[in-house]
Model the fold of this input.
Amino acid sequence: MRRKVTIILMFISMALCLALMSNTYSRYVADTRGDIDMLFARWQILVNETDITSNANSTISIVPVIEEQEHVASGRIAPSSRGYFDIDVDPRNVDVSFRYSINLAMEDADITDLNITQFIINPNEPDATPVEVEDMIISNTLIFDKANSAFEFEQFTIRIFFEWYSGEDRTMTDEETTEIGRRAAEEDTSIRITANISFEQVFSSN
Done:
């Protein structure tokens, strides 16, 4: 009888020991999932009210302003004519620094005296200053101001001037100029200035 009691007590002792060991090595556990949401930097640029970032290759029409001359019909150009066209840029929905480039070209290479001369940024501002166009390219880099939590790029206008030069050192002869006028009378021809405008994000202000 004592032997049975002793064996039963041994089994109880072992069970208690295992239970204590189990409690010693157990630990609190929990499981969950975290969702990390990050907002993309905005990249939307409007040129003359057209969203050019929605289409990699977009074409917009820009209407030039031709200065009135006493002896030239309105809306027509001739030797000595001057004018300009505006490119309105709206980058308010851009959250990164960026660079813009405007590559200008004359489609009619025969009119060598018709030149792009100058440009002005925001021409309606009192301190706006004309800048000479070099190599038919206008470019600039705009930096996003992270130090200002309310920073937002402002809309701006680039006014580009052109002139049909008729001074003494002009390159076209009278015969070449006359031929252009003759074609205009027969075919109502025109000349086109192309402005290829590109925007790209920059990673350094250098």
